[in-house]
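Internal tracking record. Fields below are filled automatically when a chain is submitted to the structure queue. Please do not edit lines marked as system-generated. If the sequence contains nonstandard residues, flag them in the REMARKS field before resubmitting.
Queue: standard
Priority: normal
Entity type: single polypeptide chain
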Amino acid sequence: MTATTPTSNRDTATPGGTPALVVVAHGSRDPRALSTVRALLDRVRTLRPALPVRLGHIELNEPLLPDTLAALGGGEAVLIPLLLGRGYHVKRDIPDMAAASPARTRVAAPLGPHPLLVDALQARLTEAGWPTRPAPDHAVVLASAGSRDPESRADTSRTAALLAARLGVPVVPAYASAATPTVPDAVRALTARGHRRIALASCFTAPGRFATQCAAAAPWIASAPLGTHPAMARLLLHRYDETLMTDGAMKRRVLATP
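SYSTEM-GENERATED OUTPUT FOLLOWS
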């Protein structure tokens, strides 16, 4: 998904013209969320020191995305949603904010589904006590925020399938709001199928109300939010590189068209 806005020749993201990587977070009233996101951006900067990395929020926290984009002037940026699937924010809010800014922008795909996201989910489960060799009565509930958008739910289901293939146990998606099943409903369904060790995989980028609510409903272990896991920083850079490569390929095809 890309969004291109009108440009001026006033500014570039860096003296060499490297597009900035703008991480777009949702925003949260929980102060732990902002500190977690900032720490994640620091990991990205460590991995690629020459890349300009910025932060913008959709709501609730500063800097807001329109302010971050305004500070870029007419420079280029790749906007990476710090969101784990498609939904209204990815499809409408972020592109609309990008189109209203003077910056030349591209909007990347959300972080999920992707194998690097599964790397982080598996690692967080292992930290919480998930065994190396789970028994037949083990299972996982993959808890996420939820959305009314069917594509968002499809993305969560795909992430659950990837995690199930990795762990070798059933993984059922569940939601904190706007979609079903809830975490308690998913736990009951797995229990009815004979599973007695049901872990909760927290598919949230940072601590907050939904993550806390879902963890409280876990019947056994619950993993921490994905936060600053190294795979998350690599995934942000992957989406940045992927977007620039896709955009470059599209431009080459246009130029080659008679």
